[in-house]
Amino acid sequence: MSGLFNQNTDVKDDFVRHIIMLAANLKIKHMKTNLLLLILLLGFTIEGVNQTMLTRRQVYDFNVNDEFHFKNFSMPTPNAKRLKVISKQFSSLNDTVFYSFHYDNYTSIPVMVPTPHLEYQFLTGTNSVYYTDLDTLMNTQFQNFPIIDSTDFFSDTLYFSSHSCGRLIYQYNGVTHSGFEPTYRSGQFGAGLGEIIYYYYNTVTPVLEIDNRMFYYKKDTITCGTPDVLDSATVAAVYEIDNYSTSILLYPNPASTSIFIDTRSNESFNISIYNAAGIIVRRYENAKRVQTIDISSLSKGFYFATIESDKQLYHKKIIIE
Predict the structure, then answer these.
(1) Lower Cβ count inside 10 Å, N or C end of the chain?
(2) Full-model pTM
(3) pLDDT tens, 238-294?
(4) Domains, the chain
(5) Residue 307's closest CA among 252, 242, 232, 237?
(6) How many helices (H) and strands (E) does the chain have?
(7) What is the Cα–Cα distance from 75 to 90, expressed in whole angstroms?
């Protein structure tokens, strides 16, 4: 079935009106950043449906062998949290449910020596979680969302999402201010899926602090999205192939104004450029055969490129002089 969660949205009229009012009251020096973030929040908002509000029982209704895969999109390098339900039990009052999960997670960091590469760390094990007050409506937990002044805002809605393969979704969006600096929060909960998106952005320090999203789930015989199947053996094989591969051309190198990456393939590739501190400085998604990368504004030094498709992963060192 189709994957999660690239949404084409119909925005609620009241949210649009508030965004216009909020934009009019934002400080001019932050206008560009704030408007971009407001557009992002708009992209997360979908027209509600005439449907009874979800309860916590409906949201956290997992079954043994259900699987959920998440990615932290605020991290510039590959990562995944993969969960599988292995046990389920209710309290004697039936108001709390206890789950055990098997987790199989990984993170990665770019390392520049002796040659540029990604180092992966895999972590497996089990953990236990519980959810209580199961008959409480989902929107009640946000009743005390901090509204300090007229530029703060909270909105929530309920809708069926084709991008989560027909699941009923509860979503909230909120904007609060510390002085004149806005903080943005957005989240989504799906029936039988739990929390599927949590987004947090603090413009006081303009860094995307949290951006966790579910990109795959399996419930009984139903699957949605594409699972992440990377393991340590696959990582070792990828690097062994890459060490001898000449199928990717990157030129000129060294360079000063622009570089060209020729994948010599009809596949679509995602290209990321990192500096020596491991911070992403350029990102191109669904790049085709030849991609031109403007490096004229980057400082001189060593950089690291990852070029990734559904089937291949390459790593290249770049020198800017």
Answers:
(1) C
(2) 0.64
(3) 554 444 344 577 788 888 888 888 877 777 888 888 887 677 888 888 887 778 888
(4) 1-231 (no CATH), 245-320 (2.60.40.3080)
(5) 242
(6) 4, 17
(7) 36
